[in-house]
Amino acid sequence: MGHTLFGALGLFSLNILLYCGHAQGVPQSVLTVSPSWTSPGDSVTLTCSVKPPSAGWRFFWYKAVPDMSRYSYYTYELLAGGTTGTEQDSYILHGQTHTAGYQCRAGRGDPVSYNQYSYVKFVWSGGVNPAASLTVSPHRLQHFSTESLSLICEGNSAEWRVKKADEDGYVSSCSDWGEMTGSTCNIDIRARSGVYWCESATQSSNAANITIHSVRHPVLTVSPSWTSPGDSVTLTCRWRFFWYKAVPDMSRYSYYTYELLAGGTTGTEQDSYILHGQTHTAGYVCGVGRGDPVFYTLYSDVKFVWSGGEFVQTFIFLHKGINVLFVLTLFVLCVS
Ligand SMILES: *[C@@H]1O[C@H](CO)[C@@H](O)[C@H](O)[C@H]1NC(C)=O
Question: Where is the Ig-like domain (predicted)?
C-alpha cells in the first residue's frame, strides 16, 4: 500500500516538475491593483509586470464580466486601450464605483504574441451601490462557524451569485461553502473568513470583510461533584484532543480513512502529541471534542510529514465527520 502511494506521488511530482520546467521559459504577467479597497469615485492603478522582466512589451487590460450561464465563470472584456494595448505598464481606472475583477497580459511582436493572462485581481468597494447591495444577516461583531449566517443580495437583477476571496486572493462561490436559495446564500460550516460580495451579469455590490471563527467545544469538569455545605468546588475547562493517521483508501480515488493513534477514543488532554521514530511519509489529522461519550466536533486540515525533504501542503475538506471528500495536494516545488 505504502509503495503504491509513493509510486503515485512520485509520478505526480515528476509531472509537476516537467510542467514547472516548461513554465519557466514562458514570461508570466503579474497584475497588482492599488488600492484594493475603494470608496466611490476613487482612482485605482492597475500595474502589469512581466516576470522575468524583459523589454518591448505592450500591455492589454481586461475587466472580468460574470458569465451567469456558467458556474463561477467570467468572460473578459478589453478595457479602453483595446486591441492595440498600452505602452505603459500601468493603467488608471478613474471614478471606480463598484467591486470588479481585472486581468492583464503582455504581448509583443507583429503579429502580437501574447503571454499568459495574469491571475484576476479584484478591487472591492466598501461603498453603497443602490443597484446592488450585500446584506449580512444577522449583523454580528463576530461570527462562529456553527451559527447560521445569510448573505442577501438585492438590486436590479433577478439572478445573483455570492463570491468570496480568501487571503491569497483565491475566489470561490456560494455553493463551495453554502447554499444559494434565490438571491440569498446561507453559509455552512465550511465557510471561512474573507471578503464577500454579490454579483450579477451587470452589477456588483459593496464587499464586506467577514470574520468567521471556528468553534471548539471545551470540556468542563467539576470537582468534587457532590459537596457538603461549605465545600469548595473547582471548575476546570479543557479541550480533549484526538489524533489520527491518514491511511490511503485504495478502493476510492483520493480518499483516506483515519485511524486513531494511541490515546484512542478517550483522546488526550495535552494539545501536543509526539510521534517517535517517524520513518516515512504520512498524513495526520487532529480533532477536538467534548462530552462522554465523545461528541466529535471539528477536525483539522490534514498535514503531511514528508520524508525526503520535499514540502507538501495538503488541503482537506472534511464534511460532517464522514471522512474526506476531497484532497488536493499542491507541490510547492513549483514556486521555488
Ligand atoms: C476590509 O479589510 C481591509 C484590510 O484590513 C481594509 O483595508 C478595508 O477597509 C476593509 N473593508 C471594509 C468595508 O471594512
Answer: 27-120
